[in-house]
Amino acid sequence: MKIFKFELTRFILNKRNKYLLTLISALIVFYAAYSTLSFISFFGQNQISVLSENTKSNKKEALDNINSLESVLKSSKLISEIDNTRNSISDMTKNVNLYQSQIDALSNKNVNEYYALQKELDKIQLAENTNQLNSEQENKRLNQEIKYIDTVQNRHLNFEVLPSPQSHAFGNFQQQFIPILSSSLFIVLFASMVSITIASGYEAKENQLYQFTGIDSRKTLLAKVCSGTLATFVWLLVSGLVYFIIIGSVNGFGNWNYPAYLANASLTTGYTITNLTIPNGIVDIGSLFYLFFVIFFLASLGALISVFVKRSMVVVGVIALLVLGYSMIENVGWIVPFHRYIPMSYFSPLTLFGNPSSLAGRYSLLVGATYLFILSGAFLFFAHLMLKNQKLRRI
């Protein structure tokens, strides 16, 4: 325990770590300010106006279709054709009335009423699509939107102006802040703090000093990994709390159980919704604590590499190559089938909350945490064996 406290104090007081934490903190504060100012200008009356303009455009399109159908009706002679045209005009007239009601609701800033009317429009569109071909994707989108609206209504919540991005702190946190922390750049920075501390100890021949003084270098290695991981994780919690308070004080905190509306944007699959109903609060807290396993994995990997090469820059270079290199090739065709076996696939908690079928589906988060923890233990075990077999030459 004394060794752990000693290494924890050294890690916190290390000038290099202070510089890195200052750099990361400055980036986060800058992003928090930028995000806050962006949301102030993006949301509010301006965004409601954009939503209203889109609704007006939909109404105009429906009126144009009615005019076209009325022209067709005048020239129709068959009774069946006349009946079908009249039914279509009747349905579109209902849509026009609903669009006008949406416009009125938005003019009164009644977003809840707008989405209640949108659900009616979606159900009408679904009924019209039942007899149409090539409407599978559109039906999927409509069903997802209906599910989202039902979820918010069943939880008795007020609707966000848009499902994504969300303005309030609980939604903004997982849509803006968590992606930064789990990005390749920040992961490399986190890994650098712990790995450089371990490797620089070998460069300074600390392990020999510990052995001469009767301190087990294997216990020291474990203390360095655990203390560095703990200190970095505590800093994550504090910075996350600061970010949450900044956004909440400006845009409001919102509700912890508002639907997270998780989505994934890919060049191959496009924009797809991955998890509609999971509450923002669970995603926020779960993502932060999941990052502990990511940091512990990287620290353990850095420790193993340090035992082999004993050069801090080499350790950082290898980790950066693994993390950044994988981020560039992860969507290559022949790599995709092997995603579930590659540890870097489990670095993004938001992806895992989306229950990706390419990993472990609804158990992806649990599998990812377990997999990274087991690999971390394996790295520390092999580092332990390497240190055990090292011999110290005495004079």
Low-confidence regions:
none
> Based on DSSP secondary structure assignment, what is the total number of beta strands?
2
Strand count, sense and barrel status of the largest sheet are: 2 strands, antiparallel
Order of helices and strands: HHHHHHHHHHEEHHHH
Describe the structure concisely.
The protein has helices at 2-13, 15-42, 45-75, 79-107, 111-129, 136-154, 169-181, 184-203, 206-212, 217-251, 280-309, 312-329, 349-353, 364-389; strands spanning 262-266, 270-275.
Describe the structure.
The chain has 395 residues and is mostly helical. It has helices at residues 2-13, 15-42, 45-75, 79-107, 111-129, 136-154, 169-181, 184-203, 206-212, 217-251, 280-309, 312-329, 349-353, 364-389, and strands spanning 262-266, 270-275. It has a two-stranded antiparallel ribbon. α10 (217-251) runs antiparallel to α14. The mean pLDDT is 78.
List the keywords:
14 helices, 395 residues, mainly alpha, two-stranded antiparallel ribbon
